[in-house]
Each structure stands twice: as C-alpha cells, then as structure tokens.
Amino acid sequence: MIKRIKYLLTTLTMSGLLFLPMMIPAVAHADSNSTGSLCTGAGLNVQGSSTCPDTSGSINNIIKWVLDIFSVIVGIAAVVMIVVGGLKYTISGGDSTRVSGAKDTILFAIVGLVVVALAQIIVHFVLQNVQSRVGG
Considering the domain boundaries, does residue 11 fall inside one? Predict the structure, then answer.
C-alpha cells in the first residue's frame, strides 16, 4: 500500500512538473511601432526595468538582470525541493533514516535560498559601489 502511495505521489509530482510551463499564462502582443527590441513590445516602456536588461551601455544592468533571472530559477528549484522533502517526510513511515534524509533535503533547500539571497545582496552592493566610484 505504501509503495502504491509513493508511486502515485511521484507520478503526480512529475506530471505536474512537466505540465507546469503550460499552466503559466503567456501574453503575446505585436507592436507595429517597435524598433526591433524584444523588450519594447506591448506598448510598454520597460527600459531599465527588472524584466529586460538595459542594453544602452551599462554592464551593471545586464549583471543585475542575469542575477535576477538566476535567483528566480534557484528560488523555484528550492521551493520544489522543499515540497519534495515534505513529501519524503510524510511518506517516511517513521523510518529514522528516511526521516533524516527528508530533513536534510529541506535543510539544503533552505540553505540554498539563503545563499542566493546573500548573493543578491552582495552583488547589488558591489555593483552599487563600483558604479558610484566610477561615476557611472
């Protein structure tokens, strides 16, 4: 019975992860007045926003944009791993080795979130100081 529950939970989790990109709504809009930039579509002025790098010169903005995208990806992966650890903890059946493995999974996911948050803070601090010293 436990094996069937594990199989069912694993199947549901994997199928949910496979179909997750299809569940996220996507909006497409053609802008006939576009200057060729992908970031100026839909009539939005997103120059300098966090959704699109400011390619007008500063490498700092591109680094910030890449770091933001990386942080989102790692954040999603950490949340998925916390859910997986919770499922492992739930179906462990009181077995001490499986419980400790589930706790380790949750702990490592939380440590990953903390490391990414600290990386965000450090990189933004360094870029801000470099930008103020260079005068850009």
Answer: no
CA 11 to chain centre: 23
Q: Which residue has the tokens 């939005």?
A: 44
The pLDDT tens digits for 15-29 are 665 555 555 555 545
Number of compact structural domains in the chain? 1
Q: Work out the number of other CB atoms within 10 angstroms of the CB of residue 90.
A: 11
* pTM exceeding 0.70: no
Q: Do the domain assignments include residue 79?
A: yes
| Residue 79 CA: distances (Å) to CA of 26, 68, 76 | 22, 16, 5
Residue that has been written with the tokens 């966090």 in this structure: 50
Tell me which residue range forms the domain holding 86. 56-136
Token couple for 62? 């591109």
